[in-house]
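Researcher: Quick sanity check before group meeting.
Model: Go ahead. Protein one:
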Amino acid sequence: MRATRRLTAAAAVVPLILFSLAPAASAAPFSVGADVLVSGPSALTSCPFGGSAAFAAAYDDTEVEPQVAVNPVNPAEMIGASQQDRWPDGGARGLSSWISHNGGASWSKLPDVPWSACQGGPTRFGRVTDPWVTYDKAGNAYFIGQPIDSAELGLSAISVTSLDRSTGTWRPPQIIQEDNGDRFVFNDKVSITGDPTRAGYAYATWLRGAYPNNGKQSPTADLHSFAYRGQAMFSRTTDGGLTWSTPVPMRNSNTYLQGNQIAVGPDGTLYDAAANLFTGGTVNDNGVYMSVMTSRDAGLHWSAPAKVAPLTFAQLFVPDDNFPIRAGDYIPDIAVDMTSGAVYVVWGDGLGTAVNRVVLARSTDGGRHWSGPAVVATGGPGVQSYNHAIDVSDTGMVTLTYWDDRNNVLGDGVATTDMWVRHSHNGTLSWEPEQHLHGPFDLYRAPVSYFAPGDPRGLFLGDYMGLETISGNATIAFFTSTIADGADVHAVRLNHT
């Protein structure tokens, strides 16, 4: 779940910049492995919790918003997670997780974590959302989620667990932040990052909407305040997930930082990418931008948000009938080359047009300066692209996946959608030929996310998809796709010699 979009395409217009699309001299394709179905029937469909007056039924046997992580100590082991049984107005009955011990060739379901009432958790949490998994340098596995009472941004919490290898199950989750929604205080869009340079360290971050001083001024002052902010929150573990620090804002500034995600550089520097949706209580050309903050001391102190590029918004629609699509657009994905230290951020942007396309920005000096944004989806200027994911291999190969609608046929009643993969061996100065990864599938079969009955936010398979280096130049793509009556999670291994 993320906060309701409050913006229209009114931000700054930036020039269209294209990285070279010519392949490198040593062009070679991925060897694309089998398309493995990861998810199966839900065990939660009979759960009586989580319904609302507006929506009494969830989408049964429907998994959305997947993430994946690979164990650096044993790359044959990987863990994936997703929402389970999505509700039309936000959140899910539970979060499911799976483990592979053979490099993604097959997967088995892990026992459920008691996140929500449907999974044996506190009855005050009728739903849960935003799954994310990760490993640290030592191979400790972490799983984070956001328990909620409903989709109204009322009661919301941040809860995290780690894998107990003696039992092969997740430990009881620890709630590290909980708010009841009073004075519009809520939590949203959580992610977690294991540190590849420090054993036992992992970092949780999310957005916490609040007034300064947690809204302790009068309600009248709240209603007339222009100081409402979305703080980038931070908590860390240094003992493999046994304990977590008291959450604190990365910065006490009047900004609204959505989609926070941390990546770690080879020197241990932390980079937090987030969409800054307003600054100083105003929406203007200078205050709406993709941002990155840095920390040189494992998250104890953070820089001010550095502007990567202005953000412009283009609403996603099915071309056939303009039915909205809710997908990863301005929410970023970030990756770091652990050899060169280059930092890459991808997101969806209109670049001053009505068409959302996947763009990339790059920094080679620790986040001080950025190139781009450059369009890196190749479907053509009139083709929507979204649901981007990026990662960098051990050798510095950059891999990018995304969806687009280039093969859609207007008026045939099918929202034809395909998934594509690109890779670069020279820091994205040029790209190898694009390859088809999955599809076509019909996006019309996806669950619909609603503001309220009769008011759809859009077709929803997730605000993000999973992509993770296995070892060398091998990569695992972990994503959702539609079926006749919902959505399933798939995994595809990509090998490159």
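Researcher: Fine. The other one?
Model: Protein two, sequence then structure:
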Amino acid sequence: MIAGHKADGDWKPQAYQAIVDKLNATWQLDLTKLNVKNRLKAWKRHYAIIIDIRSQSGFVWDEEKKVVPITAENLEIWNVYIESHPNAKRYQNKSIENWDDIAMLCGRDRATSEGAEDVGDAKQTMEFEAEEDESDVTPNSHAATSTCDSHPPNKKKKKDPLAQAIGDVANTLKEFMAAQVSPQLKGEDVHEVVSKVENLSKLQVFKAVRILMSGNPKNSLY
């Protein structure tokens, strides 16, 4: 169902417009499609990094806390991993808020390798990179040995309304997709309508029903 609403690995313009309209009306914002696209790039970056961490031997995913726990048992493996994946360092023992929504929005891109953000180009994604990242990744109070850097206490972080409204973004896309799905035709209903057409033989009615149900209008009744 999702694939039909994407073009070249990206959401179609109508889908972005639906999100913009919904968020602007709900949150009294003045967002554009570009704002939403840029935010989606950031979520794709988070998703790609976490999925790569989860795929490594020695790490497990805590579904309840939405975190990859780094403990004494796998700390050595982790240190080796982040040497070649420095972008992953800040995710040590940090829970990913709204992970389910992020996975819903970005999961298919990752699976098909379409539209997924290049982790190496992460710093080019948004103008206020350091500030907006913290909106989606928050410290896990139950983590064992977190050593990630944090913002200085007096540093004022910029607010990203889209980070706070990710649930609305996901729900809006779900609603948009549901509204675009055509209802499934039932054979008996199609037959009832076609049977009312004058001058069609029973065989032609049968063929017409078959053509309409197959969705291929090139077939001939004769």
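Researcher: One line on it for the slide.
Model: Residues 18 and 175 are 9 Å apart (CA to CA).
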